[in-house]
Amino acid sequence: MKGLIALAATLASWAQAVAAEEGMDGAALYQQNCASCHGTELQGQPDWRSLGPDGRLPAPPHDATGHTWHHGDDILFRITRDGTAAVVGGGYESDMPGFGDSLRDAEIRAILDYIKSTWPERERAYQRERTQQE
After folding, report:
1. Could you tell me the CA-to-CA distances from 129 to 44, 77, 82, 104 in Å, in that order?
2. pLDDT, tens digit, for every residue of 46-65?
3. 97-113: per-residue pLDDT in tens?
4. 93 vs 10, which has greater pLDDT?
5. Is 58 helix (H, G, I), strand (E, B) or coil?
6. What is the pLDDT of residue 89?
7. How many other C-beta atoms can be found within 10 angstroms of the C-beta atom of residue 14?
8. pLDDT class of 4 with cuts at 50, 70, 90
9. Which domains does the chain show, CATH number per domain?
10. pTM of the predicted model, to two decimals?
11. First and final C-alpha spacing in the chain
């Protein structure tokens, strides 16, 4: 198990290095691909915990007031790449599309790294622990 955790950490570091080498700016990628729903300040949509008229939840915040930090890296990556409905399954409906056809894996990781960089240490530590438990 420790070997898998070490491998995951190594791969994550490698992805960050690739993103840096390719000049990927997670903040800019977030603004281009995510901010229209999740807000320019990661604040999400109003009443994000209540179903809208369409029966779907509005886009949650990605700042410390939301629940993004409650999830490990793998689930966050898969939600971003494949879309929430594909990850949750069971007929769950969501407005969150998958970005796997429009963003490379390294770009998705750069966006997630940017989001995580905005959290206070307590949330970052909790999220790191969740990632290690995956």
Report:
1. 24, 16, 23, 26
2. 999 999 999 999 999 999 99
3. 999 999 999 999 999 99
4. 93
5. coil
6. 93
7. 12
8. very low
9. 2-133 (1.10.760.10)
10. 0.81
11. 10
Q: Quick one: which H or E segment has residue 6?
A: helix 2-21
Tokens of 76: 């966050």
The label of the residue with tokens 């977030």 reads 30
Contact 42, 118 (CB under 8 A): yes
Q: Which of 74, 68, 81 is nearest to 108 (CA)?
A: 81
DSSP 65-106: TSSGGGS-HHHHHHHHHH-HHHHH-TT---S----TTTS-HH
d(CA 99, CA 79): 9
